Amino acid sequence: AGPDYTLDQSATATLTVRPKAIMVTADNRGITYGQADAAFTSAVSGLVGSDQLTVPGTCGVSGSHTAAGSYPITCSGADGGGNYTISYAAGTLGVAKAVLTVNAPSPSTTYGVKASTVSLAPTYGGLVNADTPSSAGVASASCATAASVTSGGSYPAGSFPVTCSGPTGTANYTVHYSAGTLTVGSATLTVTARDASRPYGAADPAFTTTVSGLVNSDTASAAYSGTAATATTATATSPAGSYPITVASGTLTSTNYTFAFASGTLTVTAATTSLTAAAVLVTLGGHSAQVNVGTISATLRYGSSARPVVGATITFTARSIAVCAAVTDATGKATCSLTAVQDAKVISSLGYTATFVGSSDLLGSSGSAGLIQFR
User: Fold this and answer.
1) N or C terminus of the chain with fewer C-beta within 10 Å?
2) What stretches of 106-228 adopt beta strand conformation (E)?
3) Can you say how many angstroms the Cα of residue 100 is from the centroid of all Cα atoms in its chain?
4) What are the two backbone dihedrals, phi and then psi, of residue 117, each rounded to the nearest 5 degrees?
5) Structural contact between residues 56 and 80, judged by C-beta atoms closer than 8 angstroms
6) Which of 76, 82, 70 lies closest to 31 in space, CA to CA?
7) What is the pTM (predicted TM-score) of this model?
8) Contact 120/193 with Cβ under 8 angstroms?
9) Among candidates 368, 297, 365, 351, which has minimal Cα distance to 326?
């Protein structure tokens, strides 16, 4: 200390160690509207070495914080022991808007059903917290289709987009819109063949049809164009009986209808016949009459065109007494060669009657002939 001083080393002093200031900072958190709170945590800055808080404290948001927005997160109750003084810094809880989807419907209907009965009301996806469209702010959203309504009050057949519009965002929601499709099926027209009939062997009549199932106040000319095709399995030589008359689309076309087809029935009836007996030329010889030609005959024809009937049995009688029988040839003619006894029957009866009893395809007929000349 130098020659002029003596050092007194008995004096003492005091070291004061003050508590260290530390900061507890709430961690920021983010949730979406409708979600529960995340766990709130904090970060501590300023601790020395491996020191830790003796009490970590708690963090949270005071008051209601369900609506979308930003809310402070505050912490309290931490304890660092005697070596630390604690201050707090707030964090932020961000509540983001939820996504709400307004869904357009995809209804299906049929042409002819009134458009007013087809619901185009939207449905909603993503509502939370027991919200309704009204409380969520989207009750004004509405949907419409690009399909025009016909004069009869229904939508035309086809597929048409359905779109919705309304608010794009509300206090708690971001609003999205999804499109749908309106599907309108075709109505069905039933084309039915009218029943028809004709005699055996005749040509088919012109087949006609009826159409049923028009809707929407349509007329036939407005509903479709073209004609149906008709056919039958019967031919001119088909035996008497019933045959289907089938219907096909032919040239039929329609925008709003599809076609169904119903068969009719062609009834082939037995044809009328005509039986013409040939007159007999006789001559008198002595005290008795004899048939000059020695034969009797009759010709059988059928239908309006008088076609010959081949292979039919013709019976010949004289005053209801059987004379003979013969089968028609390719010209429809049946001929009997008479014996003397048969001659006598014909002569005494002054003629004869030829009879065809008929068949499943041909109606019966008869014809008579007399004696046309005596010599």
Assistant:
1) N
2) 108-110, 123-125, 142-145, 158-165, 173-178, 180-185, 187-193, 196-199, 209-212
3) 34
4) -90, -5
5) no
6) 70
7) 0.74
8) no
9) 297
At CB < 8 A and 24+ separation, what contacts does 52-59 make?
Answer: 53/24, 53/78, 53/79, 53/80, 53/84, 54/79, 54/80, 54/81, 55/79, 57/24, 59/26, 59/27, 59/91
Are residues 95 and 73 in contact, defined by beta-carbon separation less than 8 angstroms? no
> Residue 22's beta-bridge partner residues?
86
Residues 6+ apart with CB under 8 A from 62: 74
Among all chains, which residue has been given the structure tokens 């979308």? 68
> The tokens of 314 are what?
């013709």
- Residue 340: enclosing H or E segment and its boundaries? helix 340-348
User: Residue ranges of the alpha helices (H) in 7-148?
Assistant: 133-136
pLDDT digits (tens, 9 = 90+) for 317-355: 999 999 999 999 999 999 998 888 888 888 778 889 999
Cβ atoms within 10 Å of 339's Cβ, excluding its own: 13
| pLDDT tens per residue, range 173-225 | 999 999 999 999 999 999 999 999 999 999 999 999 999 999 999 999 999 99
